[in-house]
Design a protein that fits this description.
CATH topology: DHBP synthase
Distance between the termini: 48 Å
Largest sheet: 6 strands, mixed
Oligomer: single chain
Order of helices and strands: EHEEHEHHEHEHEEHEEEH
Helix content: 25-40%
Strand order of the largest sheet: 7-4-6-5-10-11
Shape: globular
């Protein structure tokens, strides 16, 4: 395992090389630390499931850095666009209809939908500008404590990643502390809050129905 600085271009290039070779990285986000790989690499995605001891019936979201890249993978219907315009970049994962069927079924758990997010974190966005997409799951064993700091990840039972990208350390009173993104299923007109995280449900509904 190597340590990379998310503010240094040469380290971001190294990060891309690791990802393109099927490697797994730990990286900072605007919420908690994430665990990711190339979402088109089925073997790498499978390794993440095994590392996290994650059930295969639980889909994984994908991170990207702009609407153009999001639209290549997911249908941006009216509600998706309304939410994305309001909360991206930021801590909202939006589930929409899958468009790119080159995405391995292991990511979607066999569903016709996919979750996507544009994070509001300079280091993560720097990685994404080199590799376009990343699997975006929390860097922890499933159902165990999420990690706000890199040192927490390194001390945790999570093993098997190839690199950890260091970001700006958050303050202990960070409002996003140990909360993941809010997840909203906007693939149909029947909007569903799958998980309430940083963004409150009432805020989502205010945007949708104002």
């Amino acid at each position: 395992m190597i340590i990379l600085d998310g503010k240094k271009e040469q380290d971001l290039i190294k990060c891309k090389e690791i990802i393109m070779k099927g490697g797994i990285i730990v990286y900072p986000t605007d919420t908690i630390y994430g665990l990711g790989c190339d979402p088109y690499n089925k073997e790498a995605v499978g390794k993440i499931f095994r590392m996290k001891k994650r059930l295969l019936n639980k889909a994984l979201p994908i991170l990207t850095f702009d609407f153009r890249h999001a639209e290549k993978i997911m249908v941006l219907n009216e509600n998706v666009r309304k939410l994305a315009n309001s909360f991206w970049p930021g801590p909202l994962t939006i589930i929409g209809t899958l468009k790119d069927y080159d995405i391995p079924k292991i990511i979607t758990a066999g569903h016709q939908t996919i979750g996507m997010r544009i994070p509001n974190n300079l280091e993560t966005l720097g990685i994404l500008k080199y590799c376009n997409y990343l699997v975006g799951t929390s860097a922890n064993i499933s159902n165990e404590k999420s990690c706000l700091y890199a040192k927490e990840v390194m001390k945790s039972p999570l093993i098997g990643y190839d690199a950890i990208v260091m970001g700006t350390e958050k303050k202990p009173n960070n409002p996003f502390s140990l909360k993941g993104s809010t997840i909203v299923d906007a693939s149909t007109s029947n909007i569903k809050i799958v998980r309430e995280g940083v963004i409150k449900s009432e805020t989502i509904y205010e945007i949708l129905y104002q």
